């Protein structure tokens, strides 16, 4: 069921919230997670966002997640299957009292092109403030068009994202910075490059 679209100013607490939840996921999925990343608008300092933290888990094999379904259910996550992106396993966690979405977890097998796409977009928005401002303006425009339908809001901004993605990926090809959480230690960057 579509939810209202609420955009809030960036919160400096989002990275710590993401890191805690990544740590819980890495620990709970014991050995299956190769890397974990905070993605989406809450991972871009200064960018207004829906107050929903997006996490990306790189796993050895997405099919193994089916065997760990109980782990997600135990932590009150709902499995939504691929949910429109082939090769993804998607989970959501809503606050039981308010019904507000808190986390979205996108799981992809190591080597999936979707991993690069998500990380490249995040990193580009982090390092290009003018692009982040343009994205924020587009998000506000789409929210104003569809204030009560989060699905229509996402569909509306998809065109803008698709338009900027070739530039993002071209930029990423020259930069290999990928920040994330180590599956081994639960902290720090695991794939650092030269920057950009």
The overall pLDDT average reads 88
Global geometry: globular
Number of E strands: 6
CATH homolog superfamily? Beta Polymerase, domain 2
Total count of helical runs of at least 4 residues: 6
Q: Provide the succession of SSEs.
A: HEEHHEEEHHHE
Approximate strand percentage: 15-25%
CATH class: Alpha Beta
- What is the C-alpha radius of gyration, as a whole number of Å? 16 Å
How much helix, percentage-wise, in residues?
Answer: 40-55%
Structural class: alpha+beta
- When the domains are counted, the total is 1
Looking across the biggest beta sheet, what order are the strands in? 3-4-5-2-1-6
Q: Termini distance?
A: 39 Å
CATH architecture: 2-Layer Sandwich
Instruction: Describe the largest sheet.
Output: 6 strands, mixed
Q: Topology, please?
A:
Blueprint: H1 14-28, E1 33-39, E2 53-59, H2 64-67, H3 69-74, E3 78-79, E4 88-94, E5 101-109, H4 113-127, H5 129-145, H6 150-174, E6 181-182
Parallel strand pairs: 2-5
Antiparallel strand pairs: 1-2, 1-6, 3-4, 4-5
Give your account of this protein's structure.
The protein is α+β, with helices and mostly antiparallel strands and 196 residues long. It has one domain: Beta Polymerase, domain 2 (2-Layer Sandwich). The protein is built from 6 helices and 6 strands, in the order αββααβββαααβ. It has helices at 14-28, 64-67, 69-74, 113-127, 129-145, 150-174, and strands spanning 33-39, 53-59, 78-79, 88-94, 101-109, 181-182. A 6-stranded mixed sheet has the order 3-4-5-2-1-6, with helices on both faces. Strand 3 (78-79) and strand 4 (88-94) form a beta hairpin. Helix 4 crosses helix 6 (150-174).
């Amino acid at each position: 069921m579509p939810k209202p679209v609420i955009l809030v100013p960036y919160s400096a607490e989002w990275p710590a919230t993401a890191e805690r939840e990544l740590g819980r996921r890495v620990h709970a999925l014991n050995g299956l997670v190769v890397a974990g990343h905070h993605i989406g608008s809450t991972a871009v300092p200064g960018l207004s966002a829906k107050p929903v933290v997006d996490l990306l888990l790189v796993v050895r094999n997405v099919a193994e997640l089916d065997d760990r379904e109980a782990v997600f259910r135990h932590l009150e996550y709902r499995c939504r299957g691929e949910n429109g992106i082939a090769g993804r396993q998607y989970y959501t966690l809503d606050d039981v009292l308010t019904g507000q979405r808190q986390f979205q977890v996108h799981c992809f097998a190591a080597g999936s092109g979707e991993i690069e796409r998500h990380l490249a977009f995040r990193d580009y928005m982090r390092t290009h403030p003018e692009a982040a401002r343009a994205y924020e303006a587009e998000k506000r425009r789409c929210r104003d068009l569809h204030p009560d339908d989060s699905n229509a809001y996402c569909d509306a901004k998809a065109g803008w994202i698709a338009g900027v993605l070739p530039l993002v990926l071209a930029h990423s090809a020259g930069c290999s910075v990928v920040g994330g959480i180590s599956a081994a230690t639960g902290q720090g960057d695991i794939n650092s490059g030269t920057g950009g």
